[in-house]
Design brief:
With 135 residues, this protein is mainly beta. Helices cover 8% and strands 55% of the residues. The protein has one domain: Lipocalin (Beta Barrel). A hairpin with a 4-residue loop joins strand 3 and strand 4.
Length: 135
């Protein structure tokens, strides 16, 4: 159970936005294969441990942004789903669980690739993710 909660946070952090001008002509809706997903946590206290992990996408891994506002993720054996919405400023808000929402900005979205840089400051440190997807 604790492991699934730990998996939920990184998956929740892949929320996407279309802030770059060149991304405005492309839709995030559809099924995207995972190229790689890098997660780094820099602990700011002794109560937490720093870590770094790199996940290389395998055949069958995906992020699927449906037109009805749901995002489905399969990364290895982990499955997750959450609601998402595209905001008027081009950002995407993801709601992985009640009471938890975050907005993020995509560094690049094209017709066939998407790159997301996510930085979240938490009370116990800073979580950084870099995710590369392809259609």
């Amino acid at each position: 159970m604790q492991r699934s909660k730990l998996l939920l946070l990184p998956l929740a952090l892949i929320i996407i936005a279309f802030s770059c001008k060149k991304s405005s002509n492309y839709s995030i809706v559809g099924k995207w294969s995972i190229i790689d997903d890098s997660t780094k946590f820099d602990a700011s206290s002794r109560a937490a441990s720093s870590y770094h992990s790199d996940y290389i996408g395998q055949p069958g891994d995906y992020y699927n942004f449906s037109a009805n506002g749901m995002m489905y993720v399969k990364e290895g054996a982990a499955l997750d789903s959450m609601a998402y919405e595209i905001l008027s400023n081009g950002q995407v808000r993801c709601t992985p669980s009640p009471g938890f929402t975050q907005n993020y900005t995509a560094s690049e979205v094209t017709a066939t690739t998407a790159t997301f840089n996510i930085i979240v400051s938490r009370g116990d440190g800073i979580l950084t993710k870099l995710i590369h997807l392809k259609k």
